[in-house]
């Protein structure tokens, strides 16, 4: 890399909308029991209408609605009790004018009926005669055969991670296997002569154990990916290029931590440029400015800043949405958040998005400060808030949205 400045600092919004490597993971069939949070490759159509038959939603009596019009406590309608519907069975009796049939919740609506009046608004004043004291409109107390879904309509959309209720809906429709995008394989490469494996018991002076790879692996699993810890590469010209070339062929997304800044040993840009195209070097975000984005044959490559805190913040903002996109999901699912009152003034430079770690107690968000070189800030945080690019800070007492860590 020439010079000591980053090529172009892009905003986070520009990155998310503009950096669009085309690679998507292939489809695979999974049973419903393994489909939670997986992304269907396409809309899944209903093989048949649901519920499939008109059914009661209340315990009561199937009626012709017109027979109940004007009914009141003072002037009830009197209907002949013609029989009863059994749960899970075809009705054996139809409703004729002036008649009614006893119904359980969920039973099949008998022919001739267009509503079910709730048992609370009825009384059997004499054997075989039902007194109705409230009118019911046509369609009242029932769902029709295709109210949940019509045959052929999409049960669940493609490109959106499956949620628990989706699994129930698919099960109700008899869909027990789903074509979903394969989990993205995310190669995680750490760099730096001083970085040693976490298993290292005694550190030589200046050595640090690799913190970033383990944390990134956790974020990858959280976002539905399969982390591949691809080791620690020393600061040697050529070493990173070699490792990158080896992993890119077997990954859906590649993450390199450290070496993306502007120091003498910062090799990432050169190595990445040798195997792919750099899209941007520098994002208008704090922490995380020295971030590099590139692609190689449609596979996204992210060069993260060396400071573990910055690396994790950037991966959350940029890597996680990219990971979901590679898995066929255009927009990452929203994270849980809460509203809180800011405990103190927060300064920020205009033109840069700030990700501020906070603790939340009793509805108050307390910013946690410390250099990005300190990992403990993230462990103490309950979540983060964002100060958008145009703002020059936030005043104490501002109502802020805090995105919560799980
Ligand atoms: N003159 C300037 N110096 C620095 C700037 C700047 O703009 N001008 N930016 C600072 C910022 S911000 C960051 S972030 C770092 C990014 O530098 P690199 O991406 O080149 O990363 P390194 O220098 O290799 O590492 C930084 C720091 O993080 C430690 N590290 C690296 N990898 C790991 C790991 N896997 N586990 C634990 N710790 C790791 C490394 O030992 C360094 O202490 O540059 C600033 N400097
Ligand atoms: O901006 Mo660096 O990415 O803080 O640690």
Automatic annotation (TrEMBL):
<dbReference type="GO" id="GO:0046872">
    <property type="term" value="F:metal ion binding"/>
</dbReference>
<comment type="function">
    <text>Catalyzes the insertion of molybdate into adenylated molybdopterin with the concomitant release of AMP.</text>
</comment>
<keyword id="KW-0479">Metal-binding</keyword>
<dbReference type="InterPro" id="IPR005110">
    <property type="entry name" value="MoeA_linker/N"/>
</dbReference>
<dbReference type="GO" id="GO:0005737">
    <property type="term" value="C:cytoplasm"/>
</dbReference>
<dbReference type="InterPro" id="IPR008284">
    <property type="entry name" value="MoCF_biosynth_CS"/>
</dbReference>
<dbReference type="InterPro" id="IPR005111">
    <property type="entry name" value="MoeA_C_domain_IV"/>
</dbReference>
<dbReference type="InterPro" id="IPR036135">
    <property type="entry name" value="MoeA_linker/N_sf"/>
</dbReference>
<protein>
    <recommendedName>
        <fullName>Molybdopterin molybdenumtransferase</fullName>
        <ecNumber>2.10.1.1</ecNumber>
    </recommendedName>
</protein>
<dbReference type="InterPro" id="IPR038987">
    <property type="entry name" value="MoeA-like"/>
</dbReference>
<keyword id="KW-0500">Molybdenum</keyword>
<feature type="domain" description="MoaB/Mog">
    <location>
        <begin position="187"/>
        <end position="325"/>
    </location>
</feature>
<dbReference type="GO" id="GO:0061599">
    <property type="term" value="F:molybdopterin molybdotransferase activity"/>
</dbReference>
<comment type="similarity">
    <text>Belongs to the MoeA family.</text>
</comment>
<dbReference type="Pfam" id="PF00994">
    <property type="entry name" value="MoCF_biosynth"/>
</dbReference>
<dbReference type="InterPro" id="IPR036688">
    <property type="entry name" value="MoeA_C_domain_IV_sf"/>
</dbReference>
<dbReference type="Pfam" id="PF03453">
    <property type="entry name" value="MoeA_N"/>
</dbReference>
<comment type="pathway">
    <text>Cofactor biosynthesis; molybdopterin biosynthesis.</text>
</comment>
<keyword id="KW-0460">Magnesium</keyword>
<keyword id="KW-0501">Molybdenum cofactor biosynthesis</keyword>
<dbReference type="InterPro" id="IPR001453">
    <property type="entry name" value="MoaB/Mog_dom"/>
</dbReference>
<dbReference type="GO" id="GO:0006777">
    <property type="term" value="P:Mo-molybdopterin cofactor biosynthetic process"/>
</dbReference>
<keyword id="KW-0808">Transferase</keyword>
<dbReference type="InterPro" id="IPR036425">
    <property type="entry name" value="MoaB/Mog-like_dom_sf"/>
</dbReference>
<dbReference type="Pfam" id="PF03454">
    <property type="entry name" value="MoeA_C"/>
</dbReference>
